[in-house]
Predict the structure of Tyrosinase copper-binding domain-containing protein.
Amino acid sequence: MASTTNSPSTLLTLPNFSIQTSTFLPKTSQRSIFKKKKPFNFNSKRVVSCKASNGKQNDADHTSFLNRFDRRDILLGLGGSLYGATSLVRDPFALAGDAIKPDLSSCGESTVDTGKNCLNVPCCPPKLKGSKIIDFEPPLGCKIRYRPAAHLVDRDYLYKFESAMERMKALPVDDPRNFMQQANIHCANCNGAYSQVGFPDQKLEVHYSWLFFPFHRMYLYFFERILGKLIDDPDFAMPFWNWDSPCGMTMPQIYLDPYSPLYDENRNLKHQPDVLVNLNDEEEEEEEDSFDKLTKRKQIKSNLYVMYQQMVRSAKTASCFHGAAYLGGCESETDISCTPEPRGGTIENGAHIAVHKFVGAENPPYNEDMGSFYSAGRDPLFYAHHGNVDRMWNIWKTLPGKKRRDFDEDVWLNSSFLFYDENANMVRVKVRDCLDSKTLGYDYQSVDIPWLRSKPTPRRSRPGVGRDQDQGQDVAARRKSKNFRRFPIVLDKVAVRIEIPRPNKELRIKKKDEEEVLVLQNIQLDRNDSVHFDVSINDDEDDDNPCKPEDAQFVGSFSSLPRGDSCHSEAMLSTNLYLALSDALEALKIQFEDTIVVTLVPKEGEVSIGNIKIDYVC
């Protein structure tokens, strides 16, 4: 991909905008090494500021601006003016569209782009024996079965679990309850196999939207019921991988025996058997002399701060936690809800992706199995991972906050999915059927939740900043040197700083009880790339260490798994990122500042960002 990065000594001047670079040399361990990418070299930092009125831009000027870049830059940035001129941060209940429903008759082979050709992957379910699809009814009067933490199960449980999995894998290949048939459910719903009912030109996608949690909940529900049926135990409950707690931050031992049906050879061997997962999705450079290399204690601490960020600080509303609305039957170039993968929620876009990448093997092209959506369900560990993801949904609704409740819009509640049950019947499940796990007959073993005690604190200011001078004053004092540039921004190997205006004082007073959010719009990336970047506000530009999750300045990250489905879809993926700001503004004592400085630190891959703004609806 082409990049708009200039040499450190270059100043690019555009109409009313300019860009400059400055030295940015972090400690060695802060640079990231990635499997398929050269390590990012933080040898320069772009400093950008946007003086557009909260993201609004002139279309005519935008066209002339695009003419200054080559075709690939235009491809990355196209739509920046559209997104800048349209308020994307809007109440999802005001959106007009239909509930999402998969069209079974349209199901075709999924495709995976190997880089050299398109590989057809048969992911569709077996044909119905009859013509009837049963509407799901939650079980009545059943006792609650408790899913155990994988690292705490005993021998008797393990024997039962392995027996069930072995029998599932031994079922005839055309039995919809067979393990590979079950794995294909994930593939079919995320790699372009289904179209939507009534809209044959619109593909179905269950990731990066408000469909993520409901789909995966019911996916695991039926998988679990099949296992119980195979061992004649209706009370059987699958384990969850307790990766949000120190005792569970390594791959569970029960999945690491090569002779067990729980084993998958397509995993990253470097992360076995006792390597801690990094929930912020980044690799540390392996240097014996690196004095800042993450120790296990530091990694645990970092993971707990990440969980607090994604579950408490940044997930105060349904839209922040679940993701953006995704509607069927609407077409719009400016309304993200009319497109697949409009925006994931905090957990989906964060710890969920980080664990997928951690487990996936270092195999080309896409780190199968867990490292790619189309193949993830082939690893038995996938179901334990998503058990914990589902557990986060339960926990989220118990945390303090008046807005921590699910959507109540019919267009969400009536969206539906198709699964085969334990009796090999095809079942249609609506979102409204799965809002409460106890209604479905299961809950999770009670374990400690240590991240609730991991609230981040402001990092120390750079030397020379007085103790009585807060972060807002410090940044304001150094803001005079910044120059200005128009969006889109290409984020690749160097960190970028952008000065973003906040809503005016009158609006801030009026909405003082609402959540202020940072909105990164029209994020464009290659669908086949693995991408990650961190976001912080008002950090110290003279400090050579990027902010970390334990710092109050750190407000979140963006992560993406390779789709491998560009044969079916557009080569570029367009999505968005919303990050809650209210807690960070209060912790940094900058609630009354008129602008903030946003820092974007790339860790993997390359993206273009069409616009950045601040709003209140999340």
